[in-house]
């Protein structure tokens, strides 16, 4: 199919070893109600049939561009797409996920009519048609205008205030929105590699949102995040604990360059709490031993969290869990972790 139009949204899709999911993803993009798009398929050295599938799709629709490159990971694959993107806005889709056919028309029209740098949406956590759950960070349209409001939003992405009932208030993922290409070009923004930092998205959020002035979050669930048991993020990695710590260090380094410590400190400590809990839950799942939990709790890396976080302001469930960590009540922690205690 031939289209002759300037793209309004460039959609970058990094691709690696997703042969069984790729058709579903690409079809959801080709069928967008917004026709003025370009779809940049970045074959990141995929060892399966994905490279040939990408080339075949490009023959069928001239809105599709294909990049074949040596494998370097998700972050750098997105960067390759950014190098050739020509849309007014850019979106990022993981190739084992898919989107609502109205997603980009909805987000683009909202962005253009109000001059937003970014428009974000809610999503579904999807297993199959009979098993999907709404992830609703907001229940009504929410707007952040100006440096103070956008920075407050950014810090709530890093970590919410103590009284908030969950450890995550807003998703830090980049796939549920569109981003201004003018801003990306002006600031020369790029992704780090997830091989260097376990969450390249949170670092992008810091770099991008601190430069943005107008952000909108709409309540529509338009992105389907697919819970693929074979994805890399769900496979055991013995280095994950150290990777979590390295990310925490990098987030603090970046925040300290942008803000006074008193402005970001509580948000950052909530992030530390989240990554400590995630590390313990991960270990409980794959290496369930009292000693592994004890070793983490004895790691001085987490000392600032226990010394400075106002955990008494948290709800009861969080407060009890925090006290188990702070006072190293290992046997209770192990029971909670084994039973997938949710906070």
Count of strand segments: 10
Strand content: 15-25%
Count, helices: 13
Structural class: alpha/beta
Order of helices and strands: EHEHEHEEHEEEHEHHEHHHHHH
Instruction: Just name the CATH architecture of the largest domain.
Output: Alpha-Beta Complex
What would the CATH topology of the largest domain be? Answer: Spore Coat Polysaccharide Biosynthesis Protein SpsA, Chain A
Shape assignment:
globular
Sheet bearing the most strands, described? 10 strands, mixed
Helix content: 40-55%
Structural features:
343 residues; alpha/beta; Spore Coat Polysaccharide Biosynthesis Protein SpsA, Chain A; 13 helices
Structure write-up:
The chain is an alpha/beta fold. The chain has 2 domains: 9-232, Alpha-Beta Complex (Spore Coat Polysaccharide Biosynthesis Protein SpsA, Chain A); 236-338, no CATH class. Helices cover 45% and strands 19% of the residues. α1 links the parallel β1 (9-15) and β2. α5 (146-158) runs antiparallel to α7 (200-209) and α7 packs parallel to α8. The model has no long low-confidence stretch (mean pLDDT 94).
